[in-house]
Design a protein that fits this description.
Chain lengths: ~120, ~325
């Protein structure tokens, strides 16, 4: 039950958020993170071991999808709408949305997840 | 929280060293560099002086110069040969003395290690006799302040063991055992690197020497002597079965049926700070990407892309995280 309800709640929250908030241009993200700090975090935790990420030379993993144009894509992992809110939750707890998918729980804090989101949303 | 361990400002720098097996080499480096600069300066000054003097003498008969030599002038040749001879003999004696100082046995070593160079990682075996021996990879722990004997072997091609802050280069050659000595004056982390081109991933063949305070070293050693952890959670138990089926033919976890000897011993994988011989920090994300497709991260590495299904990868991860 719990596994089902989490994504539903997230989707609902995301849909509601979409009605009121539009993404501010450049710099600050709607999720309130710092894209520069996010970029450093992405290197530190090792997202590049699975994902190719434009602008990060060492990020050349061929396990998950490339993160090219991540800021302009419409879905995350095929199950979530690509909004800053759902991205922040996804990078923290991917296993909560799709049980036993290949992406591990990253152990990111709330603030770190917002920073990572800000960086990913900046990949136009 | 403990402060970060000491590490040389320039991890692969060889101008500053931190142990008696490397310090004489640093002195030699500085000495030879000074000597080489002096030779260049002296020769340049003499050549320029010779040209200027000849021009001042107003030599005009250019055609005659090739076959006639004005009398005298040999004095500089004798001085030059004598100076060169003295410098070369002094260099030779100094070099031999340094080699003797860094390679001579230090009596009874505190620890004896066997390091084997593989394409492209380092196998590290601690030989402590029955029940006191274990194997790890890519991270060498030593007690600070004590001499450590390193037996160097090559598994496939010639590699070279080099920890610039602690010891000079010694080749690891298949079929023979070379010896090197390590001693770190102070606790810290010292980076090393294969120093003999050994194939496609030569550049991703690093290792770390972690010099611990003697009590910390002993604690680490006792931890490494233990067999692999017994998994307790359902995911980790399932993950161990995945490990036996998918990984055990190449990797060992001591105390289990996984006994492969092709890749690194993973009994205490999570006690290491990097994976793939210093290629990636040992984070859960890097570990996942590496397990699934090492070929994207270190092309040519002997570990193939595994295509472990995502659900099994999550279980495998749960098991590996218990290997502390």
């Amino acid at each position: 039950m719990r596994r089902l309800s989490l994504p539903c709640l997230a989707c609902a929250a995301v849909l509601l958020a979409n009605c009121t908030a539009s993404r501010p241009p450049g710099g600050a993200s709607a999720a309130g993170g710092d894209p520069q700090r996010g970029r450093m975090l992405v290197s530190q935790v090792g997202c590049g071991a699975c994902h190719e990420i434009p602008g990060l030379r060492s990020a050349r993993g061929l396990v998950g999808p490339p993160l090219l144009h991540m800021g302009r894509r419409t879905t995350i992992a095929g199950v979530l709408p690509n909004t800053p809110e759902s991205m922040a939750r996804w990078v923290q707890h991917p296993q909560a949305f799709v049980a036993r998918n290949a992406m591990p729980e990253m152990g990111l804090s709330e603030a770190q997840a917002r920073d990572v989101t800000a960086y990913l949303e900046s990949l136009e | 929280m403990a402060s970060a361990p000491f590490t040389p400002a320039s991890p692969m720098g060889f101008w500053q060293t931190f142990g008696p097996r490397a310090d004489p080499v640093t002195a030699l480096n500085w000495g030879f560099s000074a000597l080489s600069v002096a030779v260049v300066v002296i020769v340049t000054v003499l050549v320029v002086a010779g040209v200027v003097t000849r021009a001042q003498r107003g030599v005009t008969d250019m055609a005659g110069l090739a076959v006639s030599r004005p009398p005298g002038g040999m004095r500089w040749i004798y001085i030059g040969v004598a100076l060169t001879f003295v410098a070369l003999v002094a260099s030779l004696i100094w070099t031999v003395a340094v080699l003797a100082a860094v390679n001579s046995p230090a009596g009874r070593p505190a620890v004896t290690l066997e390091v084997t160079g593989h394409q492209w990682w380092w196998e590290v075996a601690y030989d402590g006799g029955p029940g006191e021996s274990f194997t790890t990879a890519n991270e060498i722990h030593i007690p600070a302040g004590a001499p450590v004997e390193v037996k160097l072997k090559g598994a496939d091609v010639i590699h070279s063991f080099w920890i610039p802050a602690l010891t000079g280069k010694t080749d690891t050659i298949p079929g023979r055992t070379n010896l090197a000595w390590l001693q770190a004056d102070r606790p810290g982390v010292y980076r090393g690197q294969c120093a003999e081109y050994c194939g496609e991933q030569h550049a991703h063949m690093a290792l770390y020497v972690k010099a611990d305070a003697p009590a910390d070293f002993e604690a680490w050693r006792q931890g490494q002597l233990k067999p692999g952890a017994v998994p307790a959670t359902p995911d980790a138990i399932a993950g161990q079965q995945v490990f036996f089926e998918r990984c055990g033919a190449c990797h060992t976890v001591r105390g289990t049926e996984a006994g492969g000897a092709v890749g690194p011993d993973l009994t205490h994988l999570m006690s290491r700070t990097t994976i793939a011989a210093g290629t990636l920090p040992n984070t859960v994300a890097n570990l996942s990407g590496w397990i699934e497709n090492p070929q994207a991260l270190k092309p040519g590495a002997k570990m193939p892309a595994t295509y472990v299904p995502p659900a099994q990868l999550a279980q495998l991860r749960a098991y590996l995280e218990t290997l502390r």
